[in-house]
Amino acid sequence: MLNTLLQNTQEGTEVLQDGESVEKTLSIIELIGSGGTAGQVIIFLLFMLLILATYIYFERLFAVKAASKIDANFMNQIKDHVSNGKIDSAQILCAQVNSPVSRLIGKGISRIGKPLADINTAIENAGRLEIYGLEKNVSILATISGAAPMIGFLGTVIGMILSIFEIANSGGQIDIKLLADGLYTAMTTTVGGLIVGIVAYIAYNHLVVRTDKVVYQMEANSLEFLDHLNEPT
Fold this sequence. Notes:
By secondary structure, the chain is mainly α. It is 84% helix and 0% strand. Helix 6 packs parallel to helix 9 (176-230). The longest helix has 55 residues, at 176-230. The N and C termini lie far apart (115 Å). The chain crosses the membrane at residues 38-58, 138-162, 182-204. InterPro entries: ExbB/TolQ_transport (IPR050790), MotA_ExbB_proton_chnl (IPR002898). It is a multi-pass membrane protein.
């Protein structure tokens, strides 16, 4: 009886040891490497999209930050120069500041002497150009946020097709290990696509919010400038 218990204990230990020896851990690099040419191409494409989205985000973020910086006393100085008839000094000040707001005000100053409607139209046209410059390449982020998950899903479909093809070629016998490896590889592209899409989506919306603040600043200062011109002298 004792010998039987000892044998069972030894067998249980061997099973446990065997179980520990075959324990699998997931490795992203291994999954990508075992994904075949199609899976690797999809992952590489998603990685390039991630780099592009990151570059556009930080490049635009720094540009929007620079555009939002303006001296709080800028408009007071402009109004003083205009009130005193120092149009050249006001234009020089706008050129020195070099921001979207200063360029709009500078455009309005260059039209002083013409009807107020013409000045307003000139400022609005200049404002459209400034907004276009601020939103440069931001639409690419929106495209990446929508396209990346679809590209990842395409990799998943390709992986599933290849897995089913391998199973069919195995004589109809389902190899669980082969099927599991195929599913791991297929889902890797979906996860990669979702990650890239989420990052691009968050980056896009953050830039939109920051750009809207600059646009509001441009509109507020332009309106203040037009109101000053409309004041009775």
